[in-house]
Structure formats: structure tokens, C-alpha cells
Amino acid sequence: MDELKMKRSKVVMELDRKREVINICLDCFIEKGLTETSTRGLSTALKLQNAGMYHYFSSKDEAVILCAEEAALRLERALIPQAIADMDDLDFMMDRLKQNADRMAPTMQFLVSVCTSKRYKKDMQPVLERLARRYACYAQQVASKIDCRKEDIELYVYMMITAVSNYMIFSEDVFVRPQVEIAKDALERFAHSAGETEGGAVYED
Fold it and tell me: For the chain, is the Cβ count within 10 Å smaller at the N or the C terminus?
């Protein structure tokens, strides 16, 4: 039994170290860019010898894909749960979402550089499919928050995610503002409708 616990503990430690390594490498990619980051640079960031990164990755390409997926997760953690929590005050939600988007823009720009590279297009497909499935879950969370059907709000949630993503890519809000306003108006409308339903009881003789 003790041996089994030790094995499990070792696996957990190895996974924790791998996550740490991925995050260090991701920070390096964000700072220097996809094409300017070398295997030597990654090894240096990890405080290893020149080829030390190969202890954790089979190739630089594997490091890129794993870091890109971590970038997507990092973006989601920084933006989406907080926005959903702030939905009781949509103006405040939009202000804080813009601040967080400004902070996370370099991470998004790295992710886009990987997704648009022909070299990584095939390997990124499963990553993007997992991302799409998580977006469906976020749409359900929004629907639960404002008490409406997922099918009614899903389009507007995706529209908001796309608009915020484009804002982070281009650092310009002029051409995404219409999508943001449409999505925000829809959220307000559905939330208002839910409030009216709760507030108005229906009685039958």
C-alpha cells in the first residue's frame, strides 16, 4: 500500500513539474514570440543546459503545442469566470473584461501565431476542438446565470468571445464594438425577461 502511495505521489509530482515547465516555456514564448524563441532559450528559461528541454518535450513542436493549449486555458481562466460572475452589473462586467483583455493580449497573440502557422495547423485541431466544447459549457453557465435557455443565448456568448478575442489580437475596439454592443444588449434583454418572469406571479381561479 505504501509503495502504491509513493508511486501515485511521484506521478503527481511529475505532473506538477510538467505543468510548471509548460508555464515557464509559455512565458518565454509570450515574451520573445514564436519564431524568435529557440530551444536554447527555452532550456535557459528552465535553468537547464542547452538541450535540457528535451527531458520534458520530445521536440520544440511538442513544446509549442502544449504551450498553445496552456495559453488557451490561461486566457479562459483570466477572462470568462470573472465575466460570468460580474454579469449582475453588465457595465462593470464590460469595464473589467476590457482591462483583463488588455492584460492578456500578448497571450492571445501567441496563441494566434500558433493557430495560423501551417506547421502547427494539424496538431492544433484537437486543441481547438476541446476549446469549442468548453465554450459550449460557458454558454450553459451564462444561461443559468440569467435564467434562460442555452439555445437562446449561445449565439451571443460566442459573439462576445469572438469580439473580445479580436480586440486582444488587434488592440483596437472600434471594429469589435458593434458585436460587443449586440451581445451586451441581448444579455440585458434576457436578464430583464427572466427578472419579469420571477417578479410577476400568475394566478388561476
Answer: C
DSSP 82-135: HHHHTTTSHHHHHHHHHHHHHHHHHHHHHHHHHHT-TTTHHHHHHHHHHHHHHH
Phi, psi dihedral angles at 118 (to 5 degrees): -60, -30
CA 173 from chain center: how many Å? 19
Measured CA to CA, the distance from residue 18 to residue 16 in angstroms comes to: 5
Residues 170/188, Cβ–Cβ less than 8 Å: no
User: Nearest-CA neighbor of 156 among 183, 190, 138, 194?
Assistant: 183
Helix (H, G, I), strand (E, B) or coil at 143: helix
Among residues 81, 108, 82, 92, which one has the least CA distance to residue 184?
Answer: 92
Taken in order of first residue, the domains within the chain and their CATH numbers are 2-197 (1.10.357.10)
pLDDT digits (tens, 9 = 90+) for 50-78: 788 899 999 999 999 999 999 999 999 99
